[in-house]
Amino acid sequence: MTYASLPFLLLGVVFASPALAGKAFVTNERGNTVSVIDTETWEVTEEFFGGNRPRGITVSPDGKHLYVCASDDNLVRVFDTETYAELPSLPSGPDPELFILEPSGHRLYIANEDDNLVTVTDTQSRTVIAEVPVGVEPEGMGMSPDAKWVVNTSETTNMAHFISTDDYQIKHNVLVDQRPRYAQYTADGSRLFVTSEIGGTVSVMDIDETGTPTLVDKISFEVPGVLPEWLQPVGAKVTSDGKTLFVALGPANRVAVVDAESLEVRDYILVGQRVWQLAFTPDEKFLLTTNGNSNDITVIDVAAEEAVRSIQVGDQPWGVVVIE
Amino acid sequence: MPFRIAQIVCLAVSMLVLAGEPAQAIDVRAAVLRVDYQVPLPISRFDLRPDDLGVAGGLLADEDNNTTGTFLGHTYATTTRAATPETADAAMDEILAEGLRYIVVIARMDDLLRLTDKAAEAGAMVFNAEAADMPLRDDQCRANLLHTATSYQQQADAVIQFAVWKKWTRLVLIAGSNTPDVALADAYRKAARKFGADIVEERIFEDIGGTRRTDSGHVLVQRQLPVFMQDLPEHDVVIAADASDYFAPYLTYHLWTPRPVMGSAGLRPVQMHGGHEAFGATQLQNRFEKIAVRYMKDEDYNTWIALRALGEAVTRTQSDDVTTVIDFLLSDAFELAGFKGHQVNFRDWNGQMRQEVILFDDRITVSVSPQEGFLHRTALQDTLGLDRPESACTALGQG
């Protein structure tokens, strides 16, 4: 046994034993619903109205409140994760697509695709506390683990904008490839991955102790028999040990497994059609993928790096979040 | 098995962290020159040309480019001019005298070529945002001319691929009698040969002139057209080649045998339309409609994406030097998102923008070509239009 696998194993022991059923929540973009999946039995237990064109989805730190970007309602809908009752909504600015909640649960940072803005909403007072002008078509939202930086990607400007959460000012801009979709820090905050859907790459940035990014590499993908233009990186997640990066490749119907240190692509896991967003179970044993064109979720065994099952959900699943 | 391809070229030009102090300030100046022709009214008043046709796309490009430019210290300003064929040369002279070196031209082939050559003398480059004629991509290509407008061949290939995908391979071709109609019909013949469809019969619909606005025109059309379409061999689709817009829309519901119409009416190949929302295009439509207070048309999209390509070249190369920009646009390093599913870029052999073609029924995106199953050894988009071995263009040095 290597040292590297030790923490992983411990995590598994801690979380696996009490067999407490978790829940995965999936937004169905076209079906206007949220599907609830029991992560013990992998059965869909509920499907409830999630707003009009629900896309980005996240959960409060205490696991009690579910936040959903209802893009066509121009607001963030809030649901109780136990009863699925709808709670008072949050203002989001127009056409919210993706957002990120700070670890304290107070401030929600929302990308407004139509207005070249990032809206900062206070989840307690339910008010907008700041609007940050960014590039054209803001989309991806990432946050540094110390919560000092929010990274927004703008799809037409093709930049990652580094917004300080102290004063809401942009301090750094990094050019990346076409249509950047998603920004994901490693758990130690030393690296940032930004996917570019049309560029077909993942930009890799080293982050120094002041939070300043340096673009160091770009990861490309190649699958025999799949045309390069179908390899469109969208969602991305990195294991908390910082060793493995998973990248959803959209219409290529595959999730790439990347060694997050050497940046070598290790494998491609075949999943459902038009794989979009990804989420780990809290114990990181499983990775869930939303497959928009096959209306299902693929469950990937993280350690084995293979797909273990698929679950039918609603119409055009888009986002996913998992709670214990 | 490990896969990893280093994109050295891409990385080299874009490996700048644009923190704190902005890169060198650049003020990018461009022009849109539109030539307006004396033409009969369109068959449908929905197709009247708006006063700001094309120009509005330029305004949107300025807005998009300037937002990006804010983070880099770059500014963009595009001046616009409308001219007649008689005043177009003087307008181009003025544009060049102002020192502008990037000009989007919305004009027919002959005027476009003359204006492009004039621009070449001043070291300026031209984007063709309208003319679909094949010689421009073939033996009449120019070193300083790139095309964001699709060619007749791209349009015809997009339609015929769809028909073949549907297995509707028996075609009747109805062509107009004007020069552009004849050129478009020729593109349909080539497309049918290329993709294995049969043109079982061709007919010419003569343009006999006359007014297009009458009080009860449909009465005559309803009686006469079915007769014109009588006695055809078994066929699956009627293809209309009517580049001059005088008969195709009448075909759709006035055939003898009920069949779908494609081409210049029915299912039409377009670059963009106001109802297109796939691939994130809703945001593009919203931004455009805020500026223009109308829906986007092909000329707007062609102008917008030409100036966006220019903006992307300046962003990535940190230069607005014409040679640097053209070289970058024709290189593998250039890629641009065009809201049609894949990146667009330029063919280095004839300067044509590689792009998907939307098939539009006048309300929705019915399909997007290239279609599934049509293969190409390098790029799927190159199944549409003149491929490298087919083009006689040598001006760009890559023929």
From TrEMBL, chain A:
<dbReference type="InterPro" id="IPR015943">
    <property type="entry name" value="WD40/YVTN_repeat-like_dom_sf"/>
</dbReference>
<protein>
    <submittedName>
        <fullName>PQQ-dependent catabolism-associated beta-propeller protein</fullName>
    </submittedName>
</protein>
<dbReference type="InterPro" id="IPR011045">
    <property type="entry name" value="N2O_reductase_N"/>
</dbReference>
<dbReference type="InterPro" id="IPR011964">
    <property type="entry name" value="YVTN_b-propeller_repeat"/>
</dbReference>
<dbReference type="InterPro" id="IPR022456">
    <property type="entry name" value="PQQ_b_propeller"/>
</dbReference>
<feature type="signal peptide">
    <location>
        <begin position="1"/>
        <end position="21"/>
    </location>
</feature>
<dbReference type="InterPro" id="IPR019405">
    <property type="entry name" value="Lactonase_7-beta_prop"/>
</dbReference>
<dbReference type="Pfam" id="PF10282">
    <property type="entry name" value="Lactonase"/>
</dbReference>
<keyword id="KW-0732">Signal</keyword>
<dbReference type="InterPro" id="IPR051200">
    <property type="entry name" value="Host-pathogen_enzymatic-act"/>
</dbReference>
From TrEMBL, chain B:
<dbReference type="InterPro" id="IPR028082">
    <property type="entry name" value="Peripla_BP_I"/>
</dbReference>
<comment type="similarity">
    <text>Belongs to the leucine-binding protein family.</text>
</comment>
<dbReference type="Pfam" id="PF13458">
    <property type="entry name" value="Peripla_BP_6"/>
</dbReference>
<dbReference type="InterPro" id="IPR028081">
    <property type="entry name" value="Leu-bd"/>
</dbReference>
<dbReference type="InterPro" id="IPR022478">
    <property type="entry name" value="ABC_transptr_sub-bd_PQQ"/>
</dbReference>
<feature type="domain" description="Leucine-binding protein">
    <location>
        <begin position="64"/>
        <end position="202"/>
    </location>
</feature>
<keyword id="KW-0732">Signal</keyword>
<protein>
    <submittedName>
        <fullName>Amino acid/amide ABC transporter substrate-binding protein (HAAT family)</fullName>
    </submittedName>
</protein>
<feature type="signal peptide">
    <location>
        <begin position="1"/>
        <end position="25"/>
    </location>
</feature>
